[in-house]
Model the fold of this input.
Amino acid sequence: MLVKTYCAAVNGLDVTTVTVEVSLARGILYHLTGLPDNAVKESHDRIVAAMTNIGHKFPVADITVGLSPADIRKEGSGYDLPLAVSILAANGKVIPDRLSQFMLVGELGLDGRLLPIRGALPIAIQARKEHFSGLIVPRQNIREAAVVNNLQVYGMDSLTDVISFFNGTADFQPTVIDTRREFYEQQSHFDLDFSDVRGQQSVKRALEVAAAGGHNLIMIGPPGSGKSMMAKRLPGILPPLSLSESLETTQIHSVAGKLGRDCSLISQRPYRSPHHTISQVALVGGGTHPQPGEISLAHNGVLFLDELPEFNKSTLEVLRQPLEDRHITISRAKYTIAYPSSFMFVASMNPCPCGYYGDPTHHCVCTPGQIGRYLSKISGPLLDRIDIHCEIQAVPFAQLSQMAPGEPSEKIRERVIRARNIQTERFSSLPLGEGGGRGRPHCNAQMTERMLHQFAEPDEASLAMLRMAMEKLSLSARAYSRILKVARTIADLEGSENVKSHHIAEAIGYRNLDRGDWAERGV
Done:
């Protein structure tokens, strides 16, 4: 007897529907075809044990299993459930009438329990796209899969439940989640607030500008000056995620297995802060079994690298392409995968190895050679891709204890949202794909050179100021573009239609690492 069930293969964020065909004939052999990896090959042993422990005998027959399309590699343990159901149906233990209406995924425990798998959300999206009536997933994956509307999603606890469902001996109801209600209820709550930060008004202003335009930012200052503290509060002033952005971000975390059991949609912008010992593969993604890296997990959010010069230089250099293109393509001998990586890059660093160069209250013990080597770990091309350079000084305790609490994040966020709304309206007239991607630009940081001429053209006075800064600081063409983008954002925060000279002046002030005194130290 020939039986077909359906599951899915996840390759990056791309999902392919896989047909599982099982044929039983006289004999005793088990044949598995269709480019399965070791986890799929081992499914035979898990299925035999699971069937035995729930009271079903594994058929004594010549079993041929085909996974189609056969030229796509099948990886992971999510094929256990469709394989087991197909074998049971071919052996007459499951009624096959409704198998073609459902997609099935799940790992089997030896006792027949269904264990969670990765990528349930993109699989659910594929099931709806292929017009399946429903999707059966392990109970632990039900909330992330059920956010897809127009699809009946069933969370099952065991293989016994799945058998009862198809045989009609038990009644199961699909899980329904009010996606929009849950999404919007969780958006406005943040544990960290800028009101906790006393002083540092210039740095807060730089972070506000960065948030308003989606600009990359680096903070340079001594230990204890509040760099990490302020970076952690940055997501609280960013505009809220749209539902489409949330869905895209959730898919990445689903594929990486980073979603919690009770999580349905990621409602707040992700904040990723990897340790400086991170490897290139962990940062950009890939590996033997390809997974998203930190830059993709930070998609639509913030990637914060604390103590930037402590990171391996070759690891930092791999950031250059995704910072420019906002996606990462990973090519290996056996696969090529593209992951989105549109994130705000925020970094912090000390001015020298000991951290106290130029500090008025601490003596720096570093030699000029040590400072030069320390700062040279950050390449010029990488710095060119950072729009805002911000120096920060520690606030003395005497002043710190007397300062009033800072402005709350909610008020800063309101100004940021107003500026982003201006940008959204500005870019709404552009054709799709104008920003180099599938859609339009979302913020000023994503503007192309053509858009700069259209939306951020400086007047004569501003152009003269910019020309003088370019010559004095020996800025690159990329730094010139960055200054115009930041100036456009400053103008948006002010509500100004045109970029004026004081906007250009403030934007030039955010190029601290291009100044001569920093260049002499090795940057």
In short: The chain has a mean pLDDT of 89.
